[in-house]
Amino acid sequence: MEMGMIVQLIEKQSDGNLVQIDERRWSREMVEALHHVNYVTISGREFETIEGRLNVEKQTMELLLIAVRNRSLT
Fold it and tell me: pLDDT for 42-58, tens place per residue?
């Protein structure tokens, strides 16, 4: 049984600061879905994925996100 991968969601704020907003294990299917999507939602907020990085030392995927303004999802 495959466990998936730890994914860290990092928001790039308008002032340039980077803030980690989530970290959790994603299933293989969720990671593969990144090939087909440009946006993710978390805690009712929508973000555009702008960059991804594989951190070999931590064995995690880091996704850099920017908030989509005026489109809060609930």
Answer: 999 999 999 999 999 99
Instruction: Give all domains of the chain, ordered by start, each with its CATH number.
Output: 5-67 (3.10.20)
Q: Which two tokens stand for residue 3?
A: 């466990």
Exposed/middle/buried for 65, CB within 10 Å: 0-12, 13-18, 19+? Answer: buried
Q: Per-residue DSSP letters for the chain?
A: ----EEEEEEEE-TTS-EEEEEEEEEPHHHHHHTTT-SEEEETTEEEEEEEEEEETTTTEEEEEEEEPTT----
Query: What is the pTM assigned to this prediction?
Result: 0.84
User: For residue 41, what are its two tokens?
Assistant: 């939602």
Work out the average pLDDT over 8-35: 95
